[in-house]
Design brief:
CATH class of chain B: Alpha Beta
Largest sheet of chain A: 5 strands, mixed
Structural class of chain B: alpha+beta
Shape of chain B: elongated
Largest sheet of chain B: 2 strands, antiparallel
Shape of chain A: globular
Number of helices of chain B: 2
Largest interface: A-B, 21 and 19 residues
Order of helices and strands of chain A: HEEHEHHHEHHHHHHHHHEEEEHHEEEE
Distance between the termini of chain B: 12 Å
Strand order of the largest sheet of chain B: 1-4
CATH class of chain A: Mainly Alpha
Helix content of chain B: 10-25%
Strand content of chain A: 5-15%
Order of helices and strands of chain B: EHEEHE
Radius of gyration of chain A: 21 Å
Oligomer: heterodimer
Amino acid sequence: MTVNAIQTRRTDPYSPPAEHLELQGDEPVAFLDWRDGRKAWAITKHADVRTMLSDVRFSSDRSYPDHPAHGGYVPGAHKGAIIAIDPPEHSAIRSRVMNEFTVKKISLMRPRIEEIVAEALDAMLDGKSEAELVKELSLPVPAMAIAELLGVPYEDHEFFEHNTAIFADSSHTDPSQRVEAIGKLRDYISKLVDARMDARGNDILSRQLDAGLDAEEAVGLGFLLLIAGHETTANMISLSIMTLLDKPDLLQQLRDDPSLIPGAVEELLRYFTIAEVGGLRLATTDLEIGGKRIHAGDAVYGLTNTANRDPEVFPDPHTIDFKRGARNHMAFGFGPHQCLGQNLARLELVVVLEQVIQRVPTLRLLDPISAIAFKEWGPNYGISELRVAW
Amino acid sequence: MSAHIVAKRETCIGAGQCVFADPDAFDQDDDGWVVVLQADPASPDAIARAKEAVNVCPSRSISVLTRPEPGAGTGEAG
């Protein structure tokens, strides 16, 4: 087997890596060459990935030097970072913030998200006939949604949007610029937390400080919302719009019946499953998955993008079917670490598609798919630039 | 067949997937924890929706226990 588990590079935007699909058919739990002379397990069947991600003996604790995400892509690892710790510590912290992301609470954000999307579209459409959609729509919408959660005052919106956009752009920006933007955002969130220590507001930081988070944990939470909720959502906005403009029959279905939009969002989430490394774990004991013996200390990759094309779970998995009605995909992961902000991400995607379809009926891609700059090297799949016209 | 829904707060992570799958049977309280609104789904459709909630719950905190009506044949556990 020549497949390298960590090379999650996609060459076709509409498909997981061909090597991983091959693994799913031939060897769904495979021990492969990885890096630094180490091997790693690649798990590609839906049922096996779910089992793995549900079992806390596969650890998320990145402080283990052998953890495959140790020293990884999370800048400025912080105290209480819930993506990098295990239960019971994880459960204690997550249970304190989960009240912010309930189905009911997120649905109350709909009017504000509608305003945010409308404002971004107003600015994009104003007096022009073409735009770069990532910069004008995909990045500002989640940035402003997070600003709303954090209670970023209006006069700071431009600063926040500007620096989050540099932070999100891992492919093009000069690395030193990116480091600088990350520093500015951390300082900014620290100042925001300091201000809330003095006077509480109506925002997630104030409520969490009331609930017992200390200042450092509150900064960590604010930063985590950015890491987890900004670039990821932006990528899904770009990929979803690209798909609709590239496949007019799909767009027409949503024009004819906008009530299909939530189902379309769910299917696009399954189809693209953009988080390439969300399923990285370290085995902390010997255990068996899919008939293979995994040993304590082994690195394990739950390849959710491939698992979400498992024909045993999703019939005709490579077809985009807005009426599929499958919510058991793992675009947001699975197990105790499943994405905290998933319902906000869904809301943003639904509102963006509703408004784009309604307001910009002549929207079209300016470049063929083959000329679009994709984020092929992760950690999240997406689009760097998407030129559109109307 | 009769069915009974059991939800474990201890493992719930408040993802709210059960609420999407079966809003008649599940809700979240203000803190985000799962709340069972209707623990004994009666119709086959209601039982199927409850089982979909089991399927999509990321923390595997929901079970649907089914048993035959008194005097009926063998049952199954879900």
